[in-house]
Amino acid sequence: VYSMLEKKKNSGAEGSDLFSMLLREQSIANDTMTDKELRDEVMTLFITGHETTATALTWVWYLLDRHPEVLTKLHNEIQQMLGSKLPVAEDLPELKYTNMVIDETLRLYPSTWLFARQPLTDFSIGGYTVPKSAMVFLSPYVMHRHPEYWQNPDLFQPERFENGQEGRHPFVYFPFSGGPRNCVGAGFAISVIKLVIVMVLQRFDLKRVTDEEIKPAPKATLRPGAKLWMRVKQSREA
Hints:
Elements: H1 2-11, H2 18-28, H3 35-66, H4 68-81, H5 96-108, E1 115-117, E2 123-125, E3 128-130, E4 136-138, H6 140-143, H7 186-201, E5 204-208, E6 216-218, E7 222-224, E8 230-234
Antiparallel strand pairs: 1-4, 2-3, 5-8, 6-7
């Protein structure tokens, strides 16, 4: 990343890419933003925009393999809306069932399964007093499976998102966090995941080698606790 930043600086070329935007910010800040801070900004966006998306897609393939009826509905929507045509940004809002599958996957297996926050003042909750600046952990993985807010919480049912978040408290479902610290890349991440799902399913059939249940491993992201081996075949429609 350092070498790419240096190359961009030396070229003097303006653009709308990430490096150009960060270098402009450095210039506006009168060089108070150091090269290390520039590097850190790029690495943060790279890691959060790569591993979290890849992890979510892994769970998508796992769940589709375990629920062939959902996979059939997904295929039908893609065939009806696009056929073999490559999807473009304008197509994405029309792929409503695809979006429901993504939402339900992120409900069961949110890539970021734990968020940390610090309260600005002392407050009480559930009979406990939480002091100012204490470290408070919020887990979407736990909240997304809470039976008080979700019917049959452990089942994979994309149809529960047919009306989006209508009728739900905004913090019952928060795979991208919430409030002023909500993930700025949420919309981009959903678009990327949707594009990959559609373009893969237009061309290939994926089938797991084994059918045992895979449990999540809660590390930096919520990865599968075992390798997800799949056979890939070119689909008849491709």
